[in-house]
């Protein structure tokens, strides 16, 4: 049976790494990637990309299959104001919960965070609590700074320094994207 996997925001470096690793394990899996742009650097026949407004649940439902096996929220970043944080962090997570419950998914996947602005870390922690209250099992990974793949931004410039601090303070040790993906996949596929 073909696994049907929904990735909310799966076009980023973690999403592309997750898709590639999952396709290597299950070549028959079908991936439905929902994003604002609908553009994906990965070109595989089993990837269906949709440019979509995640606030439009009817439009989202029209783009995905009736039967879902797994759904993963890969959207999230620190935001300075609360309204933008809700748009960027809360709404995708709550959409995932809604879709997982209404489509009877086997499991949901979520990326939390242990490093960053206090408001961001608290938002992720609160969302994990809300998602864990679902009838659908939740697989969570809570990395510090994730690096590797093709991530190149101001945060990745801090990786060498964080590796040094991480030797003493584990909550500061940066984590390779492959490690995050492997942990998330292991947890998801136990369901």
TrEMBL record:
Membrane-spanning residues: none
Source organism: Secundilactobacillus collinoides DSM 20515 = JCM 1123
Highest taxon of the lineage: Bacteria
The name this protein goes by in its record: NAD-dependent epimerase/dehydratase domain-containing protein
Pfam family, one: Epimerase
Annotated NAD-dependent epimerase/dehydratase domain residues: 5-87
């Amino acid at each position: 049976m073909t696994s049907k996997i929904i990735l909310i925001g799966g076009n980023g470096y973690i999403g592309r790494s997750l898709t590639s690793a999952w396709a290597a394990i299950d070549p028959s899996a079908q991936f439905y990637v929902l994003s604002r742009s609908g553009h994906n650097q990965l070109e595989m026949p089993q990837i269906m990309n949709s440019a979509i407004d995640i606030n439009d649940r009817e439009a989202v439902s029209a783009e995905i299959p009736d039967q879902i096996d797994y759904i993963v929220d890969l959207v999230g970043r620190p935001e300075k104001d609360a309204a933008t944080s809700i748009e960027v962090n809360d709404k995708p997570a709550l959409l995932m919960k809604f879709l997982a419950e209404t489509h009877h998914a086997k499991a949901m996947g979520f990326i939390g965070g242990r490093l960053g602005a206090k408001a961001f870390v608290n938002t992720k922690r609160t969302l994990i609590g809300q998602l864990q209250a679902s009838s659908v099992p939740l697989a969570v990974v809570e990395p510090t700074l994730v690096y590797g793949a093709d991530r190149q931004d101001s945060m990745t410039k801090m990786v060498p320094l964080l590796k040094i601090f991480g030797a003493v303070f584990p909550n500061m040790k940066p984590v390779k994207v492959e490690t995050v993906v492997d942990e998330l996949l292991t947890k998801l596929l136990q369901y």
